[in-house]
Write a structure and sequence with these properties.
With 245 residues, this protein is of the alpha/beta class. It is 44% helix and 14% strand. It has 11 helices and 6 strands. Strands 2-1-3-4-5-6 form a 6-stranded parallel sheet, sandwiched between helices.
């Protein structure tokens, strides 16, 4: 049986965002490709109780074959790291896409300012659609063709059902509170990352911090990309992904 390459999406999105990459890669790598909805997104069900990383990672683990290469974008990267640590038989390699073990800004860590995440949480309670739209805009911010990137992400996102309210609010809480830096050091499988130099959600300085935490971490930065390099610079992204896989 071929090993699988499994794609995990980011907050507010669903597995359809990987559609274009999968279509291109399918004939170019000797792997089975599979994208998975994070629990509570794209019509999938989340774990019972509060929306926490651990319980929902277990639901994803049930869908993984042994020795999968897990590609995690943004919030999906936190799930990928957790899976590698706690289900090592399922994960042979982690490839982070615009992701980090800690998204929130700390005194010793560059990240998203707390007020930005708080604003998203507040807006989510009043207008979910507008909040998602704003997040799409932030993801494309800095890209040389931001408007086209947003349009493409919006089109792909619309192919599947909207996310559960619990998953949206819980996912924001994970981005705000979860710190997997210790785990990032301890994970034995290879970890690579593909980043956009213009990403406002994962600052370039965070990549340097990740290298310091784990000297084996291999990073690649696309100079003109933002938070969704697989959309804005698909061909370059796929070439990098193939070389890492």
């Amino acid at each position: 049986m071929q090993n699988e390459v499994v794609f995990l999406h980011g907050w507010g999105m669903n597995k359809a965002v990987w559609q274009l990459c999968e279509a291109t890669l399918q004939s170019e790598v000797p792997y089975t490709l599979k994208s998975i909805n994070l629990p509570g997104f794209g019509g999938s069900s989340s774990a019972a109780g509060g929306y926490i990383l651990e319980k929902n990672a277990e639901l994803i683990a049930e869908q993984l074959s042994c020795q999968s290469v897990v590609v995690g974008w943004s919030l999906g990267g936190l799930f990928a790291l957790y899976l590698a640590k706690h289900f090592p038989e399922k994960v042979s390699k982690v490839i982070l896409v615009a992701s980090t073990p800690l998204f929130a800004e700390k005194f010793n860590w560059p990240g998203i300012a707390p007020k930005v995440l708080n604003n998203f949480a507040t807006q989510l309670t009043t207008n979910t659609g507008k909040t998602i739209e704003r997040f799409l805009a932030i993801q494309a911010m800095g890209s040389e063709h931001a408007r086209d990137d947003i349009k493409q992400l919006r089109t792909l996102l619309g192919q599947l059902p909207q996310a559960e309210d619990k998953a949206l609010s819980g996912g924001l809480t994970i981005l705000e509170t979860v710190d997997l830096r210790d785990m990032f050091v301890e994970i034995e499988q290879p970890i690579s990352g593909i980043f956009g130099r213009l990403d406002s959600l994962v600052p370039h300085a965070a990549i340097d911090q990740m290298r310091q935490l784990n000297p084996k971490f291999e990073s690649h930065v696309l100079p003109k990309a933002s938070h969704a390099p697989f959309i804005s610079h698909k061909d370059t992204f796929i070439s990098l992904l193939k070389s890492i896989i």
